[in-house]
Specification:
The protein is built from ten helices and 13 strands. The chain is of the alpha/beta class. The strands form two sheets. A seven-stranded mixed beta sheet has the order 6-13-12-7-8-9-10. A six-stranded mixed beta sheet has the order 2-1-3-4-5-11, sandwiched between helices. The protein starts with a helix and ends with a strand.
Length: 332
Amino acid sequence: MTLWSCDFFYYLRTMKRYVLACILLMTLSPVMAQFLQEGDTIAIISPSSATDTATINGGIRTLERWGFHTVVGRNALKDYRGFAGTIQERRNDLLWALRNPSVKAIMCSRGGDGAVHLLCDLTLNVFKRYPKLLIGFSDITALLSAEACAGNMGIHGSMCHAINTYEGNDTISQTLRRMMMGELPEYHVAPHPLNRAGKATGILVGGNMSVLHGLAGSDYDPLRLPNIILFVEDTGESMTKVDRMLHNIEVRGLISHVKGIIIGQFSSYKKVPNTFPDMNYMFHEYLRKYAIPVCYNFPVGHAHMRNFPMLIGSVATLEVDRDGATLRFSVR
């Protein structure tokens, strides 16, 4: 074989690696996050359960103390059978906030139930066309998942009542404020005896596990995305129900999409006698057969002071070793 031939095949191999690297980069790279500046307008809407004036006013006070302007959806204080208005009224508020060019971000007043109703007559194109930084957690996982599937970013973080609890000056609220403005944290978590060491990079998706389970197989199912870092949390769900949700991911063949897992706070659940000491051990029994990094007891969940904001849809790197776990976010 001539020297030219060797160089030619070396060139082909190099180009193949370059093309594969570009494909991976495109897979992991979301659109530019719509971060905020002081003076920007944030819309407050209620996509889920009914709320009250005190909750929304508390959110307004804190957001305006942080230097933002606020507007409130016209249906945000309605109550229709426990929801914050009919499905159409709640969907109208979401579309108003998405389409309004003066609104730069959307904060949900509270979670509860019902956010998934809004997705039934919407397509991902709506979220792609109007990328906005959407903020919330719990039931709002449904809307955050839609944003991630559309290639956008959102913040899994505290809502109106929580950010007002300590007048917005506590560590969690201040971390949220900085993330909203594009200052991304680097989280370091103490070691846990069940942690699995390793390093992985992928698109960060997740949130409330039961809400994620309800999106299974839909266009809004973020577990269908390739190369993901998944985080989960929940409250009030039994160990047996969480076990079924976990195995649903496996039987659907999606565990190969998951490059790293973060187990957050599972609260207010009833333990099953003669089984596992707690929820973490149940997860470990399932996850130990997979060669991916796993972090346990991450501070994300339903208790405000254990609910650090997570930038869903960002490129995240999870690194777990004997000193603990580190989570880094990056954007294009």
